Fold:
Amino acid sequence: MSLSTKELFRDNSYLKTCEATVTHIDERGVQFDQSICYPHGGGQLGDHGHAILGNGIKLAITDTQKDRESGEQIHIIESPTLSVGDKVTLEVDWERRYSLMRFHTCLHLLCAIIDAPVNGGSIQLDRARLDFDLKDPLDKEELTTRLNAHIESDAAISTRWIEDAEFDAQPELVRTMSVKPPRNAQGTVRLVEIDGIDLQACGGTHVASTKEIGAMLVRKIENKGKQNRRITVVAAS
Structure:
């Protein structure tokens, strides 16, 4: 039987701590009744952080993952001296998470600029990339200029949930060809909207305004096949 973890980060990416109760422990790791930690998926790395015991001892969370078969959220904890029923405070590594949030939102801006399906992507701590199903050439300088114009516009970013049926009737809300956006048990799908710029289904964590991304640079554009353009972005400073 699959154990469900309430994913607090879906509705508030800025939560840094939360109270949680251990619901299951096995060879994969530790599960909690709720969590602020994002599990590796959709190209975004899983969160790191700490599980803080009542006596103040901090146990390192070295990764957060999603079980591919059950969908369970697993926290990989160093020396997990925990038992089912234990209450802890979860604390996310905020500097690391915030970097991932900035890059993830930046990739949504790239999707708004380039009118082509996405067939791959990755979000790292110091860079991010998207692969576009596109054979036409792209210009690094032009993309950098357009990307930073969107960033400087200080556009607000918000999330909302729509019913599965409404989502299925709008295939344009899915930009990725290989990764499907997560659907929850309530029969809804999460949308991320960048005001006036972009709207797409996404389960990742994002900043609240494009200006928070900071200046970015399109570092390189690579041809990864007859119809595959890989674009890598990095922070400009």
